[in-house]
Amino acid sequence: MPELLPKNDFHRKIIHLDMDAFYASIEMRDDPSLVNKALIIGHDPRKHNGHGVVATANYIARQYGVHSAMPTAKAMQLVPVDRVAFVKPNFNKYRAVSGQIHELMHELTDQVESVALDEAYLDVTKNKLGIDSAIELASHLQQKIYRETGLTSSFGVSYNKFLAKMASEYAKPFGRTVILADDALKFLAEQKIEQFPGIGKKTQKQLHDLGIYDGADLQKLPVRFLIGKFKKMGYAIALHAHGIDLNPVLSDRRRKSIGIERTFENNIHSQDQALTIIRKFSHELSQKLKNKKVSANVVVLKIRSNSFETITKRQKLDQPTNQALEIFLAGKELYSQVPNFLEDGIRLLGLTATNLESKNYEEVPLELFTDSNILS
Ligand SMILES: [Mg+2]
């Protein structure tokens, strides 16, 4: 192992799952007349004064050179006019399918980190099915997604996130690529630098100017040289070239939180006023949670005094909720536990709902939620 690099960790089992041409595949599934078209998800430039960008293109369109983020007018020039089809994106539909796929992922593990609607990392080192082989788990997931949604996906399996992602991109569509610890350096040596994550166009050019074209070239470079030349990014490139990525899969449920905070123009000196604001935040949080169809397990209060003392305090709820009253009661309880800043003045208040889970708890009518009850 070259100098300056941390010890590698081979014990994890990470899957990167990526749906194939996700939006386009959904539209083709729902309208078979599109299957043989060069399908572009985006507004038809002929109907939008030449404006718009490609959200996704199916594989036929990609063969003509169309890709995501390309102006639709440009895409139009690449594809024969009798072959092209435009469908405007329907994100509500894509979100719903994504939710369905996420439920299938959560049958394996709750260690799911979403990168986009169509892409996620899963840490299956420990998993709910008690299956040791990550390859078996990934194949199982790929097949189940296909059976339940009619959509294909590609997966990569390895001992860290960046290798799992490189693996899933290695063979698409319907790809299944595994990079074992013993093969990682050889696999990386054979990859062009364009395949490495985080090496942008500008850096590619600089590396080419130095005669560096592939992973093997990177592996031969002293780490110090890469750091000297590219600073932090050079270090990241060195880590990747040597197959090292210690970043954990950050599960959506633990990571995600919804919070509101506000700094006041005039400091708050009254408890009624503070609680009124916490109550207002509770309503806003409740609405946001309901919109996302999630419930919170923990409420966090943040408070800052005029002299910049900041306290955050959290409370675990008896059961997950998206109800304004329950959030408020937790917030009020937390408020009673923090130091009294009223004399100094409260400069900032924040309320956050966290440890979210995607369940819909029944709405309980709560007529009691009135000023007089709350502020008494
Ligand atoms: Mg994809």
From TrEMBL:
<keyword id="KW-0963">Cytoplasm</keyword>
<dbReference type="InterPro" id="IPR024728">
    <property type="entry name" value="PolY_HhH_motif"/>
</dbReference>
<dbReference type="InterPro" id="IPR043502">
    <property type="entry name" value="DNA/RNA_pol_sf"/>
</dbReference>
<keyword id="KW-0227">DNA damage</keyword>
<keyword id="KW-0515">Mutator protein</keyword>
<dbReference type="Pfam" id="PF11798">
    <property type="entry name" value="IMS_HHH"/>
</dbReference>
<dbReference type="InterPro" id="IPR050116">
    <property type="entry name" value="DNA_polymerase-Y"/>
</dbReference>
<dbReference type="InterPro" id="IPR017961">
    <property type="entry name" value="DNA_pol_Y-fam_little_finger"/>
</dbReference>
<feature type="active site">
    <location>
        <position position="119"/>
    </location>
</feature>
<keyword id="KW-0460">Magnesium</keyword>
<dbReference type="Pfam" id="PF11799">
    <property type="entry name" value="IMS_C"/>
</dbReference>
<comment type="similarity">
    <text>Belongs to the DNA polymerase type-Y family.</text>
</comment>
<keyword id="KW-0548">Nucleotidyltransferase</keyword>
<dbReference type="InterPro" id="IPR022880">
    <property type="entry name" value="DNApol_IV"/>
</dbReference>
<keyword id="KW-0235">DNA replication</keyword>
<keyword id="KW-0808">Transferase</keyword>
<dbReference type="InterPro" id="IPR043128">
    <property type="entry name" value="Rev_trsase/Diguanyl_cyclase"/>
</dbReference>
<feature type="domain" description="UmuC">
    <location>
        <begin position="14"/>
        <end position="200"/>
    </location>
</feature>
<keyword id="KW-0239">DNA-directed DNA polymerase</keyword>
<keyword id="KW-0479">Metal-binding</keyword>
<comment type="subunit">
    <text>Monomer.</text>
</comment>
<keyword id="KW-0238">DNA-binding</keyword>
<dbReference type="InterPro" id="IPR001126">
    <property type="entry name" value="UmuC"/>
</dbReference>
<feature type="site" description="Substrate discrimination">
    <location>
        <position position="23"/>
    </location>
</feature>
<comment type="function">
    <text>Poorly processive, error-prone DNA polymerase involved in untargeted mutagenesis. Copies undamaged DNA at stalled replication forks, which arise in vivo from mismatched or misaligned primer ends. These misaligned primers can be extended by PolIV. Exhibits no 3'-5' exonuclease (proofreading) activity. May be involved in translesional synthesis, in conjunction with the beta clamp from PolIII.</text>
</comment>
<protein>
    <recommendedName>
        <fullName>DNA polymerase IV</fullName>
        <ecNumber>2.7.7.7</ecNumber>
    </recommendedName>
</protein>
<dbReference type="Pfam" id="PF00817">
    <property type="entry name" value="IMS"/>
</dbReference>
<keyword id="KW-0234">DNA repair</keyword>
<dbReference type="InterPro" id="IPR036775">
    <property type="entry name" value="DNA_pol_Y-fam_lit_finger_sf"/>
</dbReference>
<feature type="binding site">
    <location>
        <position position="118"/>
    </location>
    <ligand>
        <name>Mg(2+)</name>
    </ligand>
</feature>
<dbReference type="GO" id="GO:0003887">
    <property type="term" value="F:DNA-directed DNA polymerase activity"/>
</dbReference>
<feature type="binding site">
    <location>
        <position position="18"/>
    </location>
    <ligand>
        <name>Mg(2+)</name>
    </ligand>
</feature>
